[in-house]
Amino acid sequence: MSFGEFLLVVNYFVLGYFLLINGVYALLYVISFFEIADYTRREVFSGFSELFASSYAPPVSVIVPAYNEEATIAESVRSLLSLRYPLHEVVVVNDGSSDGTLEVLGKSFDLWESDRPVRMQLETAPIRGVYASSDERLVVVDKENGGKADALNAGICAAGYPLVCCVDADIILEEDALLRAARPAIEYSDVAAVGGIVRVANGCEVDSGRVIEVRTPREALPTLQVVEYLRAFLAGRTGWSRLNALLIISGAFGIFRRSDLISAGGYSDDTVGEDMELVTRMHRVLHEGRRKYRVVFVPDPVAWTEVPSTLRVLRRQRDRWHRGLIDTLVRHRRMLFNPRYGTVGLLAMPYYFLFELLGPVVELLGYAAFIVGLLLGVLNVPFALAFFAVAVGLGSLLSVAAVFMEEMRLRRYPRWTDFLKLVLYGVLENFGYRQLNTLWRVAAIVSYLRRNTDWGSMERRGFGPGEPGKGR
């Protein structure tokens, strides 16, 4: 086989791979579209107000891991205490902060040392003290530093209620997000975990810990991530949820039955993808225990988060995410193609292995072979056009479809100019931004093979007044 023939074979292989992966995406989109349509139709008759007044809603412990959050922790806690839910508590875990996080909490909420017992059902770094507040719904656990997963495990141990909601300290939950997210667990006893949607807060108007006006970001990089988040949550997770094969619930916002978390062993503190690893492990444990269960995603409980606005920070985040994905798939490799684990073993695990883990490698190989093939005259014009249409055109179509799905069913962006902007960015992200992400993810594979376990620092501008493109 000549080099030219080899290039041609590689290009046809990559073309077929792109057709297959976009076909899978399209199938997930169809499933998601009908699932969201059904959800919004049922929402009209859901009796949401009655649910809020119901005495049957199990109480929820909201777990907030906090490390060096002195600038925002008081406002975050006030926001979480004001959530609309029949009965909930907020458990803040100060993870050995080196700043004044604990002191700020003490002054803001009149804390005093409590004798409240903590059932240590998960292994954590030593707990230094437990504090109560004049607001009896607030509990503060002070512990030695052990990382986010360790802090979450300490919070789960300290939680007093059967449902726990794990959130990041810097996210903003909408007022009814807790009730909306908990509803599947309230209505169906077989629901083990629920994920809500995480949306981009950059550009939104924020006041007193609340998003009061939804807008698209002013800057290009966060706007590209808005499209990514819509595609990942609305089109991806909704579809996997319908198949009961959802492998990830965002660490920023997820609800779990405390008993199932304890049975699964809590969060792993030796991985950089603790959220995906936990959910995958819960699937394994529940399947092996022959439990009838579901892990679901619901599209309307909203957690707002600030996304990276610089390429440097975004690269770190994507590197960590991809290393977390690889680590999860390696740890639970026995589930891959294993019918014992149902749709998780036969659909979700192969999908994440073949398309999410290996996808960047194949895509990068395809771009290289395509360019070399064109330069050497191996590829003819019709093939080049077909390759471009499949590699870039279908990607644009799917991104724009996610924006339309948002507009048709959820309509969080009320201004038509924001809608048109997102449609435009749905096309533009396939020219440069997508390829950059591919490079980062390939680099993350190398980083994983080098046993890099660094989280990488996340620099945020915050939601305070005067921040560019942020709250006022």
**Arrangement of strands in the largest sheet:** 3-4-5-2-1-6-11-8-12-7
Question: Strand tally, please?
Answer: 12
Largest sheet: 10 strands, mixed
Tell me the radius of gyration: 23 Å
Shape field: globular
Spans of at least 5 consecutive residues with low confidence: 466-472
* Distance N to C terminus: 64 Å
Q: Mean pLDDT, rounded to whole units?
A: 90
The H-and-E topology, N to C, reads as: HHEHEHEEEHEEHEEEHEHHEHHHHHH
Q: Report the total helices.
A: 15
The percentage of residues in β strands lies in 5-15%
Derived from helix and strand composition plus strand pairing, the structural class reads: alpha/beta
Helix percentage range: 40-55%
Explain the overall architecture.
There is one protein chain. The protein has 472 residues and is an alpha/beta fold. It contains 15 helices and twelve strands. The strands form two sheets. Strands 3-4-5-2-1-6-11-8-12-7 form a ten-stranded mixed sheet, sandwiched between helices. It has a two-stranded antiparallel sheet with strand order 9-10. Strand 9 (205-207) and strand 10 (210-213) form a beta hairpin. The chain is globular, with a radius of gyration of 23 Å. Mean pLDDT is 90; it is low at 466-472.
